[in-house]
Amino acid sequence: MPASTSAAAPIPVVVAGALGRMGAEVVRAVLAAPDCALVGAIDTTPGKEGADLGLELGLEELELAITADLEGTLCQVSQSVRNAGPGAGAVLVDFTHPSVVYEHTRAAIAYGVHPVIGTTGLSPQQLADLASFSEKASVGGAVIPNFSVGMVLLQQAAAAAARFYDFAELTELHHNRKADAPSGTCIKTAELMEDLGKAFNPAQVEEHESLAGCRGGLRESGLRLHSIRLPGLVAHQEVMFGAPGEIYTLRHDTIDRSAYMPGVLLTVRQVRKLGGLVYGLERLL
Question: What pTM was estimated for this model as a whole?
C-alpha cells in the first residue's frame, strides 16, 4: 500500500477582537502561518458587522465577514470539526476586554473550542473556575498574560534574583488604552517571585502617603506594583532589586506587537494537546 502523502489539516482559528491592535496582528500572523486557517473574526466595533475582515484591515479581500456573534461562531466551528478526532479541535484566540474575557473563555470551553487567552484581567477565582471547567470538559486551554519569550526570561530571572534580595518593586508601563492595572504580566511576575514564600520590603520607617496610592499597590508579600499609562508606550516592565550599595534592574521593552506573534502561534499549536487550562507561556516552552 502506498504511503499517505496527505498533510495534516490546518488548525481552525477564530480571533476575538479581530479589529483591535493585538487582534489585527494575530489575524496577520494566522494568515501567514501555513498550518493555520482563519475561520472566524469576532468584533463588536459599531458598524462593522458583516464587513469583510481583510478589507477592514487593509489586506486583500478574505471573504470572511466580521461578526459580533461569538457563541454562534463557536458553535459553527465546533460542528465543522466534530468528526476530526482527538487533538483536532478549533482554537479561539481572544484579545478583547477584561469585562468579557471570562464569559468568552467559558463559552469556548463549553463548545469544545480551545481558548488561547491574551486578554488580562481574570481574577484568581475566575482562573480557578475556568481551570476546573476545562479539566472536567477535557478541553485544553491557555491563559497567557504575555506572549513574549523575552518577558518569560525576565520573569525567570526575577524569580531567581528574589532568592537573594529582600527589597524589590515592580513597574509596568503600557499605552493609555489598556483597561486593567496592574497588568497581568506584572502580577504573574510578582507571583513567580512570591513562590519562594518569603516576605519582601520589611518596613524601615513608618511611611505616610500625602497622596493616596503614590507608593503603588501593595501585595500581601510586601511587593509593590506600579502602573504607568501614556500614549507612545506599547508594553514595558521593570523589576528593581535593592541592597546596601547596589541596585539590580531587570527590564523588558516591547516596541512592536509583532514580538508577541511567535508566542501566539506556539500556543495555538500546543493548546490542542493539553488536557486542562495552563497559565503562563513558560508552561508551554
Answer: 0.83
